[in-house]
Amino acid sequence: MKIAYCIPGLYNSGGMERVLTLKANYFADVLGYDVIVVLTEGKGKDYYYKLSSRIKVINLDINFDSTYGLPIYIRVFKQIAKERLFKKKLKDTLFYEKPDITISLLRREINFLTSIKDGSIKIGEIHFGRDNFRTLEEYHLPQSVRVFLAKRWINSFIKKVKELDSFVVLTHEDKEKWSELNNITVIHNPLTFYPAETSDCSSKQVIAAGRYVPIKRFDHLIEAWAIVSQKHTDWTLQLYGAGNKEQYQSLMEKYQLRNCFINPPAPDIEQKYCDSSIFVLSSKNEGFGMVIIEAMACGVPPVSYDCPCGPKDIITDQEDGLLVESGNISMLAEKIIYLIENEEIRKEMGQSARIKSQQFLIDNIGKKWDELFNYLLRRKHEITD
Fold first, then answer.
1. 0.70 exceeded by the pTM?
2. Is 372 found in the same domain as 262?
3. CATH number of the domain that 176 lies in?
4. How many folded domains does the chain comprise?
5. Which domain holds residue 174?
6. Cross-strand bridge partners of residue 169
7. What are 74-99's pLDDT values in tens digits?
8. Environment class of residue 256 by beta-carbon count within 10 Å: exposed (0-12), middle (13-18) or buried (19+)?
9. What are phi and psi of 293, to 5 degrees?
10. How far apart are CA 26 and CA 29, in angstroms?
Protein backbone atom coordinates (compact mmCIF):
# COMPACT_ATOMS: atom_id res chain seq x y z
CA MET A 1 0.00 0.00 0.00
CA LYS A 2 1.26 3.47 -0.85
CA ILE A 3 0.09 6.48 1.16
CA ALA A 4 0.89 10.18 0.96
CA TYR A 5 0.58 12.62 3.84
CA CYS A 6 0.15 16.38 3.32
CA ILE A 7 1.36 18.65 6.13
CA PRO A 8 3.01 22.11 6.02
CA GLY A 9 6.26 21.13 7.77
CA LEU A 10 8.00 18.75 10.14
CA TYR A 11 10.47 21.12 11.79
CA ASN A 12 8.15 22.30 14.59
CA SER A 13 7.66 20.51 17.92
CA GLY A 14 3.86 20.53 17.67
CA GLY A 15 1.54 17.67 18.53
CA MET A 16 0.36 17.29 14.93
CA GLU A 17 3.95 16.83 13.72
CA ARG A 18 4.71 14.38 16.53
CA VAL A 19 1.64 12.21 15.90
CA LEU A 20 2.11 12.17 12.12
CA THR A 21 5.77 11.13 12.52
CA LEU A 22 4.83 8.33 14.92
CA LYS A 23 2.11 6.97 12.62
CA ALA A 24 4.14 7.33 9.42
CA ASN A 25 7.09 5.49 11.02
CA TYR A 26 4.75 2.69 12.13
CA PHE A 27 3.18 2.34 8.69
CA ALA A 28 6.60 2.24 7.00
CA ASP A 29 8.61 0.17 9.49
CA VAL A 30 5.98 -2.20 10.90
CA LEU A 31 3.27 -2.54 8.24
CA GLY A 32 5.64 -2.12 5.30
CA TYR A 33 3.72 0.69 3.60
CA ASP A 34 5.34 2.87 0.98
CA VAL A 35 4.99 6.25 2.74
CA ILE A 36 5.44 9.73 1.28
CA VAL A 37 5.23 12.99 3.23
CA VAL A 38 4.54 16.11 1.15
CA LEU A 39 5.61 19.44 2.72
CA THR A 40 5.26 23.08 1.73
CA GLU A 41 7.53 24.74 4.32
CA GLY A 42 10.97 24.47 5.88
CA LYS A 43 13.10 23.16 3.05
CA GLY A 44 16.57 22.41 4.39
CA LYS A 45 15.46 22.46 8.03
CA ASP A 46 15.93 19.44 10.28
CA TYR A 47 12.84 17.47 11.27
CA TYR A 48 12.04 17.92 14.94
CA TYR A 49 11.04 14.26 15.40
CA LYS A 50 13.06 11.38 13.97
CA LEU A 51 11.57 10.15 10.71
CA SER A 52 12.15 6.64 9.40
CA SER A 53 14.69 6.35 6.59
CA ARG A 54 12.06 4.30 4.71
CA ILE A 55 9.87 7.40 4.29
CA LYS A 56 10.20 9.61 1.23
CA VAL A 57 9.85 13.35 1.89
CA ILE A 58 8.93 15.72 -0.92
CA ASN A 59 9.20 19.41 -0.13
CA LEU A 60 7.29 21.50 -2.67
CA ASP A 61 9.10 24.60 -1.34
CA ILE A 62 6.05 26.90 -1.44
CA ASN A 63 6.91 28.87 1.71
CA PHE A 64 3.55 30.33 2.70
CA ASP A 65 5.25 31.41 5.92
CA SER A 66 7.41 33.89 4.00
CA THR A 67 4.41 36.21 3.51
CA TYR A 68 3.81 36.73 7.25
CA GLY A 69 4.57 40.29 8.31
CA LEU A 70 4.03 41.80 4.87
CA PRO A 71 1.42 44.55 4.33
CA ILE A 72 -1.99 42.93 3.96
CA TYR A 73 -2.53 43.93 0.31
CA ILE A 74 0.84 42.43 -0.67
CA ARG A 75 0.33 39.35 1.48
CA VAL A 76 -3.07 38.54 -0.06
CA PHE A 77 -1.65 38.80 -3.59
CA LYS A 78 1.34 36.59 -2.75
CA GLN A 79 -0.81 34.05 -0.88
CA ILE A 80 -3.12 33.62 -3.87
CA ALA A 81 -0.15 33.11 -6.18
CA LYS A 82 1.39 30.58 -3.80
CA GLU A 83 -1.87 28.66 -3.44
CA ARG A 84 -2.09 28.29 -7.22
CA LEU A 85 1.51 27.08 -7.31
CA PHE A 86 0.79 24.66 -4.45
CA LYS A 87 -2.19 23.16 -6.26
CA LYS A 88 -0.17 22.62 -9.43
CA LYS A 89 2.81 21.10 -7.65
CA LEU A 90 0.69 18.82 -5.45
CA LYS A 91 -1.31 17.66 -8.45
CA ASP A 92 1.88 16.88 -10.37
CA THR A 93 3.29 15.03 -7.35
CA LEU A 94 0.22 12.85 -6.82
CA PHE A 95 -0.04 11.95 -10.50
CA TYR A 96 3.67 11.04 -10.53
CA GLU A 97 3.77 9.11 -7.23
CA LYS A 98 0.37 7.42 -7.69
CA PRO A 99 -0.47 6.82 -4.00
CA ASP A 100 -3.38 4.54 -3.13
CA ILE A 101 -4.40 6.93 -0.35
CA THR A 102 -3.75 10.65 0.21
CA ILE A 103 -4.19 11.98 3.75
CA SER A 104 -4.63 15.69 4.43
CA LEU A 105 -4.14 17.23 7.85
CA LEU A 106 -6.71 19.74 6.64
CA ARG A 107 -4.55 22.72 5.91
CA ARG A 108 -4.60 24.65 2.62
CA GLU A 109 -4.84 21.59 0.40
CA ILE A 110 -8.35 20.80 1.66
CA ASN A 111 -9.60 23.62 -0.60
CA PHE A 112 -8.75 21.65 -3.74
CA LEU A 113 -7.61 18.14 -2.80
CA THR A 114 -10.72 16.28 -3.98
CA SER A 115 -10.55 18.06 -7.34
CA ILE A 116 -7.24 16.28 -8.05
CA LYS A 117 -8.38 13.16 -9.92
CA ASP A 118 -5.22 11.09 -9.51
CA GLY A 119 -7.18 8.02 -8.44
CA SER A 120 -6.14 8.05 -4.78
CA ILE A 121 -8.60 7.79 -1.91
CA LYS A 122 -8.79 11.11 -0.07
CA ILE A 123 -8.86 11.22 3.76
CA GLY A 124 -8.83 14.22 6.09
CA GLU A 125 -7.78 13.98 9.73
CA ILE A 126 -8.54 16.79 12.15
CA HIS A 127 -6.52 17.44 15.30
CA PHE A 128 -8.94 19.92 16.90
CA GLY A 129 -12.42 19.56 18.33
CA ARG A 130 -15.14 21.41 16.46
CA ASP A 131 -15.68 23.77 19.41
CA ASN A 132 -12.08 24.92 19.09
CA PHE A 133 -11.76 24.95 15.31
CA ARG A 134 -11.31 28.32 13.60
CA THR A 135 -13.09 30.40 16.22
CA LEU A 136 -10.85 33.40 15.32
CA GLU A 137 -10.53 34.25 19.03
CA GLU A 138 -6.87 35.08 18.48
CA TYR A 139 -7.82 37.99 16.22
CA HIS A 140 -8.66 41.37 17.69
CA LEU A 141 -12.00 41.76 15.95
CA PRO A 142 -15.48 42.65 17.22
CA GLN A 143 -17.30 39.53 18.39
CA SER A 144 -20.04 39.92 15.77
CA VAL A 145 -17.43 40.01 13.01
CA ARG A 146 -15.63 36.96 14.44
CA VAL A 147 -18.87 35.00 14.65
CA PHE A 148 -19.82 35.93 11.08
CA LEU A 149 -16.42 35.01 9.63
CA ALA A 150 -16.14 31.81 11.67
CA LYS A 151 -19.58 30.68 10.49
CA ARG A 152 -18.70 31.28 6.85
CA TRP A 153 -15.36 29.53 7.34
CA ILE A 154 -16.88 26.43 8.95
CA ASN A 155 -19.62 26.20 6.29
CA SER A 156 -16.99 26.28 3.56
CA PHE A 157 -14.91 23.70 5.44
CA ILE A 158 -17.86 21.34 5.85
CA LYS A 159 -18.61 21.56 2.13
CA LYS A 160 -15.04 20.48 1.37
CA VAL A 161 -14.81 17.60 3.89
CA LYS A 162 -18.13 16.19 2.67
CA GLU A 163 -16.29 15.37 -0.56
CA LEU A 164 -13.65 13.28 1.25
CA ASP A 165 -13.81 9.48 1.32
CA SER A 166 -13.37 9.67 5.08
CA PHE A 167 -13.13 12.42 7.70
CA VAL A 168 -11.28 11.21 10.82
CA VAL A 169 -11.92 12.85 14.19
CA LEU A 170 -10.22 12.11 17.50
CA THR A 171 -13.15 11.45 19.83
CA HIS A 172 -16.68 10.04 19.81
CA GLU A 173 -17.82 13.20 21.58
CA ASP A 174 -16.53 15.36 18.74
CA LYS A 175 -18.08 13.07 16.12
CA GLU A 176 -21.53 14.04 17.41
CA LYS A 177 -20.76 17.71 16.79
CA TRP A 178 -20.29 17.20 13.03
CA SER A 179 -23.94 16.26 12.44
CA GLU A 180 -23.83 17.47 8.82
CA LEU A 181 -21.40 14.70 7.84
CA ASN A 182 -21.91 10.99 7.21
CA ASN A 183 -18.32 10.09 6.32
CA ILE A 184 -16.85 10.30 9.84
CA THR A 185 -14.53 7.78 11.48
CA VAL A 186 -13.20 8.03 15.06
CA ILE A 187 -9.55 7.11 15.64
CA HIS A 188 -7.77 8.34 18.77
CA ASN A 189 -4.24 9.71 18.79
CA PRO A 190 -1.54 7.18 19.76
CA LEU A 191 0.72 7.33 22.79
CA THR A 192 4.16 8.66 22.00
CA PHE A 193 5.79 6.72 24.86
CA TYR A 194 5.02 3.87 27.25
CA PRO A 195 7.68 3.78 29.99
CA ALA A 196 8.88 0.55 31.61
CA GLU A 197 9.06 2.25 35.01
CA THR A 198 6.10 4.21 36.32
CA SER A 199 5.07 6.38 39.25
CA ASP A 200 4.21 4.65 42.51
CA CYS A 201 2.03 7.67 43.36
CA SER A 202 3.82 8.24 46.66
CA SER A 203 5.50 11.58 45.91
CA LYS A 204 3.78 14.72 47.13
CA GLN A 205 3.69 16.33 43.71
CA VAL A 206 0.93 17.29 41.28
CA ILE A 207 1.74 17.96 37.61
CA ALA A 208 0.12 19.80 34.70
CA ALA A 209 1.46 20.34 31.18
CA GLY A 210 0.46 22.44 28.18
CA ARG A 211 1.00 25.76 26.47
CA TYR A 212 0.59 28.88 28.62
CA VAL A 213 -2.42 30.14 26.69
CA PRO A 214 -5.93 31.11 27.90
CA ILE A 215 -7.64 27.98 26.56
CA LYS A 216 -5.61 25.79 28.96
CA ARG A 217 -7.04 27.78 31.90
CA PHE A 218 -4.02 27.44 34.13
CA ASP A 219 -5.49 30.39 36.02
CA HIS A 220 -8.27 28.01 37.14
CA LEU A 221 -5.69 25.46 38.23
CA ILE A 222 -3.69 28.00 40.23
CA GLU A 223 -6.85 29.26 41.93
CA ALA A 224 -7.79 25.67 42.76
CA TRP A 225 -4.27 25.09 44.05
CA ALA A 226 -4.64 28.08 46.37
CA ILE A 227 -7.49 26.11 48.01
CA VAL A 228 -5.53 22.84 48.02
CA SER A 229 -2.39 24.36 49.50
CA GLN A 230 -4.27 25.71 52.51
CA LYS A 231 -4.74 22.09 53.64
CA HIS A 232 -1.65 20.48 52.16
CA THR A 233 1.32 22.82 52.32
CA ASP A 234 3.74 19.91 51.91
CA TRP A 235 2.50 19.14 48.37
CA THR A 236 3.79 20.98 45.28
CA LEU A 237 2.26 21.81 41.90
CA GLN A 238 4.59 21.73 38.88
CA LEU A 239 3.45 23.28 35.58
CA TYR A 240 5.37 22.67 32.33
CA GLY A 241 4.86 24.50 29.05
CA ALA A 242 5.80 27.24 26.63
CA GLY A 243 4.34 30.72 26.37
CA ASN A 244 3.71 33.84 28.43
CA LYS A 245 3.92 33.07 32.17
CA GLU A 246 3.29 36.56 33.52
CA GLN A 247 -0.43 36.18 34.25
CA TYR A 248 0.14 32.98 36.17
CA GLN A 249 3.09 34.33 38.11
CA SER A 250 0.92 37.29 39.15
CA LEU A 251 -1.76 34.88 40.39
CA MET A 252 0.82 32.96 42.40
CA GLU A 253 1.93 36.21 44.02
CA LYS A 254 -1.68 37.18 44.71
CA TYR A 255 -2.30 33.95 46.62
CA GLN A 256 1.24 33.91 48.06
CA LEU A 257 1.85 30.42 46.78
CA ARG A 258 5.25 29.03 47.66
CA ASN A 259 4.53 25.48 46.56
CA CYS A 260 3.57 26.17 42.93
CA PHE A 261 6.20 26.31 40.16
CA ILE A 262 5.91 27.41 36.53
CA ASN A 263 8.50 25.73 34.34
CA PRO A 264 9.51 25.81 30.67
CA PRO A 265 8.78 22.76 28.47
CA ALA A 266 10.52 19.64 29.76
CA PRO A 267 12.36 17.49 27.19
CA ASP A 268 12.11 14.68 29.76
CA ILE A 269 8.38 15.16 30.42
CA GLU A 270 8.02 11.38 30.73
CA GLN A 271 10.25 11.46 33.82
CA LYS A 272 8.36 14.46 35.21
CA TYR A 273 5.13 12.46 35.05
CA CYS A 274 6.80 9.51 36.78
CA ASP A 275 8.00 11.84 39.55
CA SER A 276 4.41 12.91 40.23
CA SER A 277 1.34 11.36 41.87
CA ILE A 278 -1.58 13.32 40.34
CA PHE A 279 -2.07 14.92 36.92
CA VAL A 280 -4.51 17.80 36.39
CA LEU A 281 -6.10 19.14 33.21
CA SER A 282 -8.05 22.41 33.50
CA SER A 283 -8.62 23.24 29.80
CA LYS A 284 -11.64 24.97 28.32
CA ASN A 285 -11.39 22.80 25.18
CA GLU A 286 -9.19 20.00 23.93
CA GLY A 287 -8.86 18.28 20.59
CA PHE A 288 -8.12 15.03 22.37
CA GLY A 289 -5.95 15.48 25.45
CA MET A 290 -2.63 13.78 24.70
CA VAL A 291 -1.25 14.87 28.07
CA ILE A 292 -3.94 12.82 29.82
CA ILE A 293 -2.96 9.53 28.20
CA GLU A 294 0.75 10.35 28.64
CA ALA A 295 0.24 10.80 32.39
CA MET A 296 -1.88 7.63 32.56
CA ALA A 297 0.83 5.65 30.74
CA CYS A 298 3.17 6.70 33.55
CA GLY A 299 0.73 5.37 36.15
CA VAL A 300 -0.46 8.82 37.23
CA PRO A 301 -4.22 9.21 37.81
CA PRO A 302 -5.74 12.29 36.11
CA VAL A 303 -8.13 14.85 37.55
CA SER A 304 -9.67 16.61 34.58
CA TYR A 305 -12.34 19.11 33.70
CA ASP A 306 -15.01 17.31 31.70
CA CYS A 307 -14.43 19.72 28.83
CA PRO A 308 -15.05 19.08 25.13
CA CYS A 309 -13.50 17.03 23.67
CA GLY A 310 -11.40 14.14 24.93
CA PRO A 311 -11.50 13.66 28.71
CA LYS A 312 -14.74 11.67 28.76
CA ASP A 313 -13.49 9.51 25.86
CA ILE A 314 -10.36 8.68 27.87
CA ILE A 315 -11.25 8.67 31.58
CA THR A 316 -13.70 6.34 33.28
CA ASP A 317 -14.72 8.46 36.27
CA GLN A 318 -13.84 6.97 39.67
CA GLU A 319 -11.96 4.08 38.06
CA ASP A 320 -8.87 5.40 36.31
CA GLY A 321 -9.28 9.10 37.06
CA LEU A 322 -11.71 11.80 38.12
CA LEU A 323 -13.88 14.01 35.93
CA VAL A 324 -14.86 17.46 37.19
CA GLU A 325 -17.62 19.79 36.03
CA SER A 326 -15.90 22.05 33.51
CA GLY A 327 -15.10 25.47 34.94
CA ASN A 328 -15.89 24.50 38.56
CA ILE A 329 -12.73 25.62 40.38
CA SER A 330 -13.86 24.62 43.87
CA MET A 331 -14.77 21.10 42.66
CA LEU A 332 -11.41 20.84 40.91
CA ALA A 333 -9.70 21.63 44.21
CA GLU A 334 -11.97 19.17 46.03
CA LYS A 335 -11.06 16.29 43.71
CA ILE A 336 -7.33 17.02 43.96
CA ILE A 337 -7.65 17.04 47.75
CA TYR A 338 -9.57 13.76 47.61
CA LEU A 339 -6.70 12.00 45.85
CA ILE A 340 -4.12 13.62 48.10
CA GLU A 341 -5.91 12.38 51.23
CA ASN A 342 -6.68 8.88 49.90
CA GLU A 343 -3.35 7.32 49.04
CA GLU A 344 -4.61 3.79 48.40
CA ILE A 345 -7.34 5.00 46.05
CA ARG A 346 -4.78 7.21 44.32
CA LYS A 347 -2.44 4.26 43.79
CA GLU A 348 -5.23 1.98 42.58
CA MET A 349 -6.42 4.62 40.11
CA GLY A 350 -2.83 5.05 38.92
CA GLN A 351 -2.57 1.33 38.18
CA SER A 352 -5.93 1.35 36.39
CA ALA A 353 -4.86 4.42 34.41
CA ARG A 354 -1.73 2.60 33.26
CA ILE A 355 -3.83 -0.35 32.04
CA LYS A 356 -6.35 1.95 30.30
CA SER A 357 -3.55 3.76 28.46
CA GLN A 358 -2.62 0.55 26.62
CA GLN A 359 -5.64 1.14 24.38
CA PHE A 360 -3.70 4.07 22.88
CA LEU A 361 -0.48 2.22 22.05
CA ILE A 362 0.62 2.71 18.44
CA ASP A 363 0.07 -1.00 17.67
CA ASN A 364 -3.62 -0.62 18.54
CA ILE A 365 -4.12 2.78 16.89
CA GLY A 366 -2.09 1.80 13.82
CA LYS A 367 -4.31 -1.27 13.30
CA LYS A 368 -7.40 0.95 13.30
CA TRP A 369 -5.86 3.07 10.53
CA ASP A 370 -4.91 -0.07 8.61
CA GLU A 371 -8.49 -1.32 8.89
CA LEU A 372 -9.81 2.02 7.60
CA PHE A 373 -7.39 2.06 4.66
CA ASN A 374 -8.29 -1.50 3.64
CA TYR A 375 -12.02 -0.87 4.03
CA LEU A 376 -11.84 2.21 1.78
CA LEU A 377 -9.77 0.34 -0.82
CA ARG A 378 -12.24 -2.59 -0.85
CA ARG A 379 -15.14 -0.18 -1.22
CA LYS A 380 -13.39 1.60 -4.10
CA HIS A 381 -12.74 -1.68 -5.91
CA GLU A 382 -16.34 -2.82 -5.41
CA ILE A 383 -17.59 0.43 -6.94
CA THR A 384 -15.22 0.28 -9.90
CA ASP A 385 -15.91 -3.42 -10.50
1. yes
2. no
3. 3.40.50.2000
4. 2
5. 2-190+362-384
6. 186
7. 888 999 999 999 999 999 999 999 99
8. exposed
9. -70, -25
10. 5
